[in-house]
C-alpha cells in the first residue's frame, strides 16, 4: 500500500498493548521467578514495528494513574475494568526504561488519558502532511481515522475508513455519536437506555450529530425503525446521560499544547543498556535477534 511506503509516524497505545502482552505471555518469568510477559510482548511488538515500517518517529503513550476528567464527570467510567494486577504493575517501569533506551519517546501525563494524548498528537502531526499509524485495539480510536491516520490492530490488520464503515455502519467521525447513543460496555459508557447499536446506526444515517438529533426530536418518530414513535420521548428523557456519554466517548484533540512543539524523532539507541536489560530478564531469543540484526537499522 502506497500509504506505508512513505515515512510514517508510529503512535503506540502503550496501555492497550501492555494488557494484551500481559495476558498473552502471563506465564513468562525470568530465572528469579519475576513476571516478564508484558515486557516480552511489548518488545516483540516493537521489533515487528521497526522491521516492517522502518519508522523515523515512534511514540509510546501510557495512561497515568491519576484520575482524569472523565472519571470526575461519571464515577462509573471504566469501573468494570479489573484493577491492574500487581505482577503487571511491577513490569511497567521496566518496559518504559527499555523503551527509552531505544530512543523512543514515552508520553504519560498526569490526569490525561492515553487516548487524548494520541488524538492530539495524531491530529497535529497529520496537519503537517504526515502519515500516522496508531497501534491499538480500542474501538474509540477509530474516530481518529481519516486519509492520513490509520489504525493497526492486535490482529495485525490495517483499519481504514472503509473498514470502520463496514464494521460499525458509520463513518469514523460519527463513532463518538454511535457510542454516545448505544453506549460502550468495555468502557462502561451508559448510552441511552433501550437504544442498541442497530437503532443508533439508523438514526445517524439521518442525523449527523447529537445536537442535530435534539433539534429534531419529533422527526425521530418518522424514521423507518421499529417503535420509532417512542424515540422522541426516550431521547428527551435521557438527554443528560446522552451528552455525558458523548463527552466520555469523544477523544479530546487539544490537550497539552506543549505536545505540539515536540519533534518525536528517534534518538540514538543505547545498545549496551538494551542488551543488559535483555540479559537481566533472560530474553535469550531477543538477544540473538538483536545481535543478528540491529532492529533500528
Polypeptide structure, described:
The structure is a single chain. The chain is α/β, with parallel strands linked by helices. The chain has two domains: 7-165 and 251-292, Rossmann fold (3-Layer(aba) Sandwich); 172-249, 5' to 3' exonuclease, C-terminal subdomain (DNA polymerase, domain 1). It has 13 helices and six strands. It has helices at 14-24, 37-53, 69-73, 86-101, 114-127, 161-168, 175-182, 197-206, 210-215, 231-237, 239-249, 271-280, 284-292, and strands at 8-13, 57-61, 105-107, 131-135, 149-152, 158-159. A six-stranded mixed beta sheet has the order 3-2-1-4-5-6, sandwiched between helices. Helix 1 (14-24) packs across helix 2 and helix 2 runs parallel beside helix 4. The chain is elongated. The mean pLDDT is 92.
Put the structure in a nutshell.
The protein is α/β, with parallel strands linked by helices. It has helices at 14-24, 37-53, 69-73, 86-101, 114-127, 161-168, 175-182, 197-206, 210-215, 231-237, 239-249, 271-280, 284-292, and strands at 8-13, 57-61, 105-107, 131-135, 149-152, 158-159. Helix 2 (37-53) packs parallel to helix 4 (86-101), helix 7 crosses helix 8 and helix 7 packs across helix 11 (239-249).
Describe the secondary-structure layout.
Blueprint: E1 8-13, H1 14-24, H2 37-53, E2 57-61, H3 69-73, H4 86-101, E3 105-107, H5 114-127, E4 131-135, E5 149-152, E6 158-159, H6 161-168, H7 175-182, H8 197-206, H9 210-215, H10 231-237, H11 239-249, H12 271-280, H13 284-292
Parallel strand pairs: 1-2, 1-4, 2-3, 4-5
Antiparallel strand pairs: 5-6
Amino acid at each position: 500500500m502506497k500509504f506505508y511506503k512513505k515515512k510514517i509516524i508510529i503512535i503506540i497505545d502503550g496501555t492497550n498493548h501492555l494488557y494484551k502482552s500481559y495476558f498473552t505471555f502471563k506465564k513468562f518469568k525470568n530465572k528469579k521467578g519475576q513476571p516478564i510477559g508484558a515486557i516480552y510482548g511489548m518488545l516483540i511488538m516493537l521489533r515487528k514495528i521497526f522491521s516492517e515500517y522502518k519508522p523515523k518517529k515512534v511514540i509510546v503513550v501510557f495512561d497515568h494513574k491519576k484520575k482524569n476528567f472523565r472519571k470526575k464527570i461519571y464515577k462509573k467510567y471504566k469501573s468494570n475494568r479489573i484493577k491492574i494486577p500487581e505482577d503487571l504493575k511491577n513490569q511497567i517501569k521496566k518496559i518504559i526504561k527499555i523503551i527509552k533506551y531505544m530512543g523512543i519517546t514515552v508520553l504519560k501525563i498526569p490526569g490525561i488519558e492515553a487516548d487524548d494524548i494520541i488524538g492530539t498528537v495524531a491530529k497535529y502531526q497529520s496537519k503537517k502532511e504526515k502519515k500516522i499509524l496508531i497501534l491499538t485495539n480500542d474501538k474509540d480510536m477509530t474516530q481518529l481515522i481519516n486519509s492520513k491516520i490509520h489504525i493497526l490492530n492486535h490482529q495485525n490488520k490495517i483499519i481504514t475508513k472503509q473498514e470502520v464503515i463496514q464494521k460499525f455502519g458509520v463513518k469514523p467521525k460519527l463513532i463518538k455519536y454511535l457510542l454516545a447513543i448505544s453506549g460502550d460496555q468495555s468502557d462502561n459508557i451508559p448510552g441511552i437506555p433501550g437504544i442498541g447499536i442497530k437503532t443508533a446506526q439508523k438514526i445517524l444515517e439521518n442525523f449527523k450529530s447529537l445536537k442535530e438529533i435534539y433539534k429534531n426530536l419529533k422527526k425521530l418518530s418518522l424514521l423507518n425503525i421499529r417503535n420509532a414513535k417512542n424515540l422522541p420521548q426516550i431521547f428527551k428523557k435521557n438527554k443528560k446521560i446522552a451528552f455525558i456519554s458523548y463527552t466520555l466517548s469523544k477523544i479530546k484533540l487539544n490537550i497539552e499544547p506543549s505536545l505540539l512543539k515536540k519533534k518525536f524523532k528517534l534518538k540514538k539507541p543505547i545498545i549496551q543498556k538494551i542488551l543488559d536489560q535483555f540479559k537481566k530478564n533472560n530474553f535469550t531469543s531477543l538477544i540473538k535477534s538483536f545481535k543478528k540484526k540491529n532492529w533500528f537499522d
